[in-house]
Amino acid sequence: MSDLDQLYQQIILDHAKTRYGSGLREAPAGVTSGESVQHNPVCGDHIRLRIQLEGSTLKNVSWEGDGCSISMASASVLSEMAEGIDREEFLVILDEFRELMRSRGARPGDEEVLGDGAAFAGVSKFPARVKCAMLSWVAAEAALLAANV
Amino acid sequence: MSSALPTTQDTLPRPLNDAEASRLRADFPILGRSVNGTPLTYLDSGATSQKPTCVYEAEQHFYENFNAAVHRGAHSLAVEATDIFEQSRTDVARFIGAKDNEVIWTSNATEALNLLTYSFGNASAGLGGETARAFALGPGDEIVVTELEHHANLIPWQELALRTGATLKYIPVDEAGALRMDLAEQIVTPATRILAFTHVSNVLGTVIDVPALVALARSVGALTVLDGCQSVPHLPVNVKDLSVDFMAFSGHKMLGPTGIGGLYGRAALLDAMPPFLTGGSMITSVTMEKAEYLPSPMRFEAGTQRIAQAHGLATAVSYLSEVGMDRIAAWEELLGERMLTGLGSIPGVRVLGPGPGAARIGTAPFIIEGVHPHDVGQFLDSRGVAVRVGHHCAQPLHRALGVVSSTRASTYLYNTTSDIDALLNAVADVRGYFGVGK
Ligand SMILES: Cc1ncc(COP(=O)(O)O)c(C=O)c1O
Fold it and tell me: Which of A20, A50, B67, B387 has its CA 20 to 30 A from that of B252?
């Protein structure tokens, strides 16, 4: 597979179209939620991501934003996988994803931990695109902090 | 003699052609490299140009033979280095039609524009005495820019307005990105003190009607500041013909090294302006309480200067002059037309900017429906085609055009029609690759 095909795996292109979680959802009254806006200064892309929580369980991740296929697919993967998992578990996945992005192509993605997120292994060979892949994850991290649980 | 060839034959510049451009390429070794297994097609000269060997050889020659601090010390090297430094200034000044003492070295256009705005800010704070009053701004005064500007010719003016209480206004563009000259007359008023605008849009490549804006500024007594970043490298530019008061430009976009650029200013204005950076090399006498400043250009060149870089830039402009700026401009116009027409005929591609008839340099901004510019750029890179993606430091313009970002291909003298064709072929495959538009 060429580097380009490794970057644009079919899973990524599919997620970029499906955009799981796309469309910001209002948290119902009494439900804890946190929100964050992140910008990619290179292209002007942005994402606004909101997480609803029940205790320490992530209940609903929704977002709105405009960006390249990598950033949109990444937000979609994140939203799909975060549903119903514990905050601590999510932070473990986030760490794993961040390590993968920093690996400069040296790591295969751990599908056990990352699920569809493992398909982003090819992104780490393109340092200019790591920011795109990380955008929604950084937003999620900040949103959890903002929710303050 | 054929009567079909009118008398304009002498006056119309003869463009370069593919054979000549290909010969020039030999002076730019980097253009011979490959990326991702394919030959490089460099179409990002709008961001920075490649450099001919003579430019960095000139720098090396300087370091090997003449390196010394200029305007200081009496030893032979210092004298020779000073000569080279000042001769470089003369060469670059000539290139833009300025007098020797009217070019101040800066590290780039961004620094040139900041120098100007900080100098005006200092004048506004009361520095520089009686002569500097002309540059002092305050509440009620207006600074006018355009919606086309690169952030480098916008944010320094925003900051100056914030520091002085002056008001910042702008001439908008229409939905195609053409400057609303019809509105300019209402926006520029007797309260306007400064009109700052770009000569050529770095995103659209369109050439702005400088004489019209200069006349407008004159009619209300405002100073004119031209951003020459995208014009000086690509068009014959003469500051006296254009009649602007100031002009900023960057060496790295015109075959020169990084780290060198300039600010042109009319001598009388420069000598009246308070300095921005202060310190060594810009004074006549200093006591523990105060200092007297040298006239321009040295009053604006505090500290040890970029000597080898200035020499490199002078070498670059002599290279450009030898090829001929009018021939370069005519060649890039041809390449630009080929690019714009070619892109426009690819399904799903929308070229940004005013339609045919608008004067443009070899710059083509475009959108591919359904594919984000970042993905477009990545795909083109896999084919060896280097273009710029993003907002190109012009977010307000992109907003006015109704997009967040775009892809921009930009030419220079060393590009050939095969570069354009490589771009067009790659662009034609983008939607298929991303499964869009099937
Ligand atoms: C029109 C215009 N103005 C200003 C600049 C800033 O130039 P520099 O980054 O060299 O200071 C650029 C460069 O991109 C430009 O294209």
Answer: B67
Q: Are residues B286 and B334 in the same domain?
A: no
- The reply to whether B393 belongs to the active site is yes
Whether residue B169 sits in one domain with residue B226:
yes
CATH number of B337's domain: 3.90.1150.10
In DSSP notation, A106-143 reads -S---HHHHGGGGGGGGGGG-HHHHHHHHHHHHHHHHH
Task: List pLDDT tens digits, range B6-37.
Answer: 444 457 889 999 999 999 999 999 999 999 99
Q: Is the CB of B153 under 6 A from ligand 1?
A: yes
pTM of the model: 0.93
- If asked whether residues B150 and B254 sit together in one domain, one would say yes
Here the ipTM equals 0.91
Kindly report the nearest CA distance between residue B145 and chain A, in angstroms. Answer: 22
Which of B372, B382, B398 lies at the smallest CB-CB distance from A68?
A: B372
Q: CB of B173 closer than 6 A to ligand 1?
A: no
Q: How large is the greatest C-alpha to C-alpha distance in chain A, in angstroms?
A: 50
SS3 label, residue A120: helix
Residues of B with Cβ-Cβ distance to A70 under 8 angstroms: 374-375
Q: How far is the CA of B392 from the centre of ligand 1 (A)?
A: 9
Same domain, B263 and B354: no
